[in-house]
């Protein structure tokens, strides 16, 4: 293998740049030509492919976002789109690709690999931490710390006014950000898609808090919770708790930005090198990950089809610490 390409796709996550840098520099170190594809699969289809040098990735290890840009491509879902993409890779003589992204990115990568056999390795880059085959994904730690910082600030004002706050964090199908920021921020309750919490549970918890002389309470809600958005949940709770002052904050996309934490920079750098080395050693159709702090390669099909369960120890801890 002499020429490889790297791209980012789907929702961006802090640390993607550190991973791109690692892929580019590792490839050059190992005597490979390395290309950057802009705008993910859309750019592959349009032929936005340029050679990268060591200096192309200078001064980005500390930055959020992705210098290669990102997109959620509709065209790549079609056979014609994937054919165009493959032809563009061939035109540049690219023999292997590294896809940095989440489950949508890997679903595309897996299809592409099945259809064209092009060696592909995925590097898990998503704030959701929802990929089977890696204990952590690039950007998750930063997103948790961003959410935590916000929750700390909300707690100050919640305590001053004896208020109840519902704080919505990201995670369409996953409660990882919610549970970790909830524990770190001392939340009274965490609502996640993986477990079911009823509105009655929420009301009881808030009343119990008042009985225990808690002035304020914070409930962290993952955006994918079955009861709906934090706003919807708050509206339903308010009907039964007229004596409580209830507010809602949706943290939204601030969780996707910002400079990556040390943890994410190091994880991204390790995964970038391991992806390049994996390609050189004949790995294909796999996602590189870290399990028990060791580099692993998991079949892409497994990475996208198996769910990563929430750590039940953390779920229990949340309950115990919120009395
Ligand atoms: O998958 C990452 C993620 O940030 C999810 O937590 C969130 O539900 C989604 O992306 C939001 O996507 P978009 O930026 O396209 O609205």
Could you please describe the fold and organization of this structure?
- The chain is of the alpha/beta class and 323 residues long.
- Helices cover 43% and strands 18% of the residues.
- The protein is built from 11 helices and 11 strands.
- It has helices spanning 16-29, 40-46, 79-91, 103-116, 140-161, 176-184, 199-211, 230-240, 262-280, 300-305, 312-321; strands spanning 3-8, 33-37, 49-52, 96-101, 120-124, 164-169, 189-191, 217-222, 246-250, 286-291, 294-299.
- The strands form 2 sheets. The chain has a 7-stranded mixed β-sheet with strand order 3-2-1-4-5-10-11, with helices on both faces.
- Strand 1 (3-8), helix 1 (16-29) and strand 2 (33-37) form a beta-alpha-beta unit.
- Helix 1 (16-29) runs parallel beside helix 9 (262-280) and helix 2 packs across helix 3.
- The longest helix has 22 residues, at 140-161.
- The N and C termini lie far apart (58 Å).
- The mean pLDDT is 97.
- Bound molecules: 6-O-phosphono-beta-D-fructofuranose.
Distance between the termini: 58 Å
Q: Spans with pLDDT under 50 lasting ≥5 residues?
A: none
Q: How would a textbook summarize the main sheet?
A: 7 strands, mixed
Percent of residues in helical segments?
A: 40-55%
What gross morphology would you assign? elongated
Number of DSSP helices? 11
**Bound heterogens, unique:** 6-O-phosphono-beta-D-fructofuranose
* Beta strand %: 15-25%
Gyration radius (Cα, Å) is 21 Å
Strand adjacency order, main sheet? 3-2-1-4-5-10-11
Helix and strand composition category: alpha/beta
Count of distinct strands: 11
Order of helices and strands: EHEHEHEHEHEHEHEHEHEEHH
Q: Indicate the mean pLDDT.
A: 97
